[in-house]
C-alpha cells in the first residue's frame, strides 16, 4: 500500500509538471524599430507655410546644389568661394590650436589619410545659414590594440539629467547650455598617430614630411575619450568635484 501511494503521488507530480511546461511562452516582437524622422526644419516650413511661401521655397530648394562629397567637387561648384572660406577657417583653427607638428615618418609606421566633410547648415525657412567644413582622419584604418587603445567615452545618464532639471526647477535656478566649438580638436593625444598633409595645404619645402598629431581630429576613435579627459582636467582645476555616482556630473 505504501508503494502504491508513493507511485500515485509521483504520477500526480509528473502531471502537474507537464502542465506547467506546456504553457506557451509569450511571443517576442522581432520587428526592428526605427526612429521616426519628420525631415528638416525647412521641409516643415514648406509644408506648413502659406501658398506663396511654399512656391518660393520650392523654387529655392530646386536651385540648391547637393553638398559636395569631395574637395574636388567643392572647388568645381558654383559656391566655390563659400567652400574655400569654410575650409580656410577650419585650417586656420587647426594651425592655431597646434593640432599637429610636421615630422619625418618613423620606420614601420603608416600615415593615415584625411578627407573633407562639407555640409550646408540650413535655417528654418530653407535658406543657407552657413557653410561648414571638417577635416576628418580616416580612423577606420586604425586597429584597436595596435595604434589605438582606450576608445571609451563616458556619457551622462538620462535619469541624472532629469534629476538636475528637477532640482533646478525646485530651487528656481538658472540653467545655462553651451556648445564648445571644435570640441574634439582640443583633446591631447596619448598615442603616436601620423597623418599625410591635406591636399592643397602641403607646406612648401616640407613636401615629404607628415603631420604628427598632438591633439585629436574628427573621426578618430579615441577622440571622444580624449575630449572627455581634457574637459575633466579643466573643470577640476577650477574647483569643481566629480559626482561618484555619475562621473559625467
From TrEMBL:
Location of the Reverse transcriptase Ty1/copia-type domain: 97-242
InterPro entries xrefs: DNA/RNA_pol_sf, RVT_2
Protein name in the entry: Reverse transcriptase Ty1/copia-type domain-containing protein
Biased composition (Polar residues): 1-14
Domain of life: Eukaryota
Species name: Lactuca sativa (Garden lettuce)
Span of the signal peptide: none
Annotated stretches, region: Disordered: 1-31
Amino acid at each position: 500500500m505504501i508503494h502504491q501511494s508513493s507511485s500515485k503521488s509521483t504520477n500526480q507530480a509528473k502531471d502537474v509538471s507537464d502542465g506547467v511546461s506546456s504553457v506557451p511562452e509569450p511571443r517576442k516582437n522581432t520587428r526592428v524599430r526605427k526612429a521616426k524622422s519628420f525631415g528638416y526644419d525647412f521641409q516643415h516650413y514648406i509644408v506648413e507655410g502659406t501658398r506663396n511661401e511654399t512656391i518660393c521655397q520650392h523654387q529655392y530648394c530646386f536651385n540648391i546644389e547637393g553638398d559636395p562629397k569631395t574637395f574636388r567637387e567643392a572647388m568645381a561648384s558654383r559656391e566655390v568661394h563659400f567652400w574655400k572660406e569654410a575650409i580656410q577657417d577650419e585650417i586656420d583653427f587647426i594651425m592655431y590650436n597646434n593640432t599637429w607638428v610636421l615630422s619625418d615618418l618613423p620606420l614601420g609606421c603608416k600615415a593615415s589619410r584625411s578627407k573633407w566633410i562639407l555640409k550646408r547648415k540650413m535655417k528654418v525657412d530653407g535658406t543657407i545659414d552657413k557653410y561648414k567644413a571638417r577635416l576628418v582622419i580616416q580612423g577606420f584604418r586604425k586597429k584597436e590594440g595596435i595604434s589605438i587603445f582606450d576608445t571609451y567615452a563616458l556619457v551622462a545618464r538620462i535619469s541624472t539629467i532629469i534629476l538636475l532639471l528637477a532640482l533646478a526647477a525646485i530651487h528656481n535656478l538658472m540653467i545655462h547650455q553651451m556648445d564648445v566649438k571644435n570640441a574634439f580638436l582640443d583633446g591631447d593625444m596619448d598615442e603616436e598617430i601620423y597623418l599625410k598633409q591635406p591636399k592643397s595645404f602641403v607646406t612648401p619645402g616640407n613636401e615629404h614630411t607628415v603631420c604628427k598629431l598632438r591633439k585629436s581630429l574628427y573621426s578618430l576613435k579615441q577622440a571622444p575619450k580624449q575630449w572627455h579627459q581634457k574637459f575633466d582636467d579643466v573643470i577640476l582645476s577650477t574647483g569643481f568635484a566629480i559626482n561618484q555616482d555619475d562621473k559625467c556630473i
